[in-house]
């Protein structure tokens, strides 16, 4: 049994906020909380293509002030941390 999933990593780099990255969520799936994870890399690539392909053709979004980059496919190793921090 494999102990990892595949995720889509959002990336942006601009002068205002600097470099930022986070795992993408599926905002259309209202019943789930947490990042969108996939069992195969191919599933992640298809989902990324469907949701974020417009970034490839929009030079204005890749330039300042946005600085968006086309999301990357990454391995995600889930970890459960029950520590409560306040």
What does this structure look like?
The mean pLDDT is 89. It contains three helices and four strands; from the N terminus they run βββαααβ. It has helices at residues 41-52, 54-57, 59-62, and strands at residues 5-14, 18-23, 37-38, 68-76. A hairpin with a 3-residue loop joins β1 and β2. It is α+β, with helices and mostly antiparallel strands and 86 residues long. The protein has one domain. Strands 1, 2, 3 and 4 form a four-stranded antiparallel beta sheet that branches.
Order of helices and strands: EEEHHHE
Task: State the shape.
Answer: globular
What's the total helix number?
3
Q: How would you sum up the major sheet?
A: 4 strands, antiparallel
**N-C termini distance:** 35 Å
**Which percent bin holds the helix content?**
10-25%
Low-confidence runs:
none
Beta percentage is 25-35%
What does the radius of gyration come to?
Answer: 15 Å
**Which structural class do you get from the secondary structure elements?**
alpha+beta
| Count of domains | 1
Could you give a short description of this structure?
The chain is an alpha+beta fold.
SSE topology sketch:
Layout: E1 5-14, E2 18-23, E3 37-38, H1 41-52, H2 54-57, H3 59-62, E4 68-76
Antiparallel strand pairs: 1-2, 1-3, 1-4
